[in-house]
Amino acid sequence: MRTRAAACAGALAAALAACDAAPRASVQPATDATAGAAPGASPAGAPGGEARLAGPVRTSVAPGQTGLEVVTWQVRHDRARFQEAMRRHGVPAVGALDELALRRNGFVVAAVRADRLDELRDDLGGSGMDIRRWMGTTPSWRELAVARPAGTMLEVDGLARERPGATLRLMVRTWPLPMEDGTRIAVEIVPQVVTDELQASLVRNAGRLAGETIPSCAAGLELERDVAWIVTCDPGAFVETDAEAPTRAREAATRHGPPSPEPAPHSGKVGARIATLGTALLLPAPERAHAGVTAQQTVLVLVPHLDASPFPEAPPSEEPMTGKTP
Predict the structure, then answer these.
(1) One-character DSSP codes across 79-129
(2) Domain span at residue 225?
(3) Could you give the number of structural domains in the chain?
């Protein structure tokens, strides 16, 4: 029986021999969601006339392709709605990842049914964008998400510090993984921090990542047929500190008598902005949420395409072996 290591080596050699073409991207315009609607009407779940996509999820991948497709949504953050959507569409799956470390760094990773992505998107409240990228099966590292958190302290594994001029990237590489029960898509994801153009060069990062990588947030997934994975963030991991809190703390330390049981009100002056890796990468304009605007979180959907699997989908025959040849 073929071992997993041998399977990975064979799949990697095959991928290198037939590296996929350049990635394609397609954007489903928000107007598609409202085609035929009355003038001024909003799609279901879209307040104030904001265009939100609904209905069937499209794909630009031609039939027979094998590889990874990445779908990007942007949904309004609603913790209760998100948890209910995961309860309805989540499926059990196995991945080589540290879920606690990912959560601590602001990432949310979960497996969902690939044949119900349209319902998942609608249950999340719809999306103002539907961007699709064909990653194919290339073992070279490529960008999955990128952000430049200017003016924000970056918290990594519980330690926050300033990283002036830093660029955050979520890097990914994929390859087909033939197994005894059929082909899967192996996906490896890791966050990266780079500080200059040389470190950020995709040519330099093709085989080995430059700059700083965050191994605690690395994830290795095996995407099976009809199972997709989502990668998003926890908007609650973004924090704005009170600029006058240190002054009040020093005054409280020298004040006589018992401390006040009531917390001091926020002064309204921002001292520092602190974001985890996940929120820095996948939460556009997080400061707007603290100004009373509903946060818009990015949801990345990793969709496997295995139509060209060299292995049959049907299980092997259970008829007993007779030892006779026809």
Answers:
(1) HHHHHHHHHHHB----EEE-HHHHHHTTEEEEEEEGGGHHHHHHHTT-BS-
(2) 64-240+271-306
(3) 1
